[in-house]
Design goal:
Arc Repressor Mutant, subunit A; mainly alpha; 7 helices; two-stranded antiparallel sheet
């Protein structure tokens, strides 16, 4: 069965008129069953959270992924880049490009491993530690504070537990 372009436009117009009569906003798209999909809700929340994160750390020009790398390097100095990338779920080519950027900003250094010359270990520089300290303060006092204010401590803890369960078991 084929539908002419004119018929499709007529159906769309009729649908919009029906929703307008119901008091729906003519410009807003109806997302229907998408609102019931957990993946969709998680992605929408992630986008909002990343937007807020980027605003909070704008003076430092860090992405959430770069911030995560700096945090891991601070806690795990001298680990190789494959371990860091795998822990964060970042593909190797993307991780190498990210490291190039962090290294060009003198936030971290790659050094040949003394145990395996094919491997590189990663270390934060003094500048990297300084930027990370500033970022942690901005994230805690602005970004996480806003999320905590929105959710409350018990809902925040419950959400973290649920997300950890999905990540570990799904």
């Amino acid at each position: 069965m084929t539908v002419s372009k004119t018929a499709a436009v007529d159906v769309a117009k009729a649908s919009r008129k029906e929703h307008a009569a119901d008091g729906a906003d003519n410009d807003a798209l109806l997302i229907g069953e998408l609102s019931d999909h957990l993946g969709y809700a998680l992605k929408r929340a992630q986008l909002k959270i990343f937007e807020d994160f980027l605003r909070c750390v704008a003076p430092l020009q860090l992405t959430p992924a770069q911030f995560s790398v700096l945090l891991l390097l601070d806690r795990n100095p001298g680990r190789n880049q494959t371990e860091i990338a795998n822990t964060l779920g970042i593909l190797r080519p993307n991780f190498v490009a990210m490291l190039d950027g962090l290294e060009s900003r003198e936030l971290c250094v790659r050094m040949r491993s003394t145990n395996d010359r094919r491997s590189h270990v990663l270390m934060l520089t003094d500048k990297g530690r300084s930027v990370l300290a500033r970022a942690k303060k901005l994230v805690a006092t602005k970004h996480e504070a806003r999320l905590n204010g929105l959710l409350g401590s018990s809902n925040r803890a419950a959400l973290l537990a649920m997300l950890a369960k999905i990540a570990a078991e799904f």
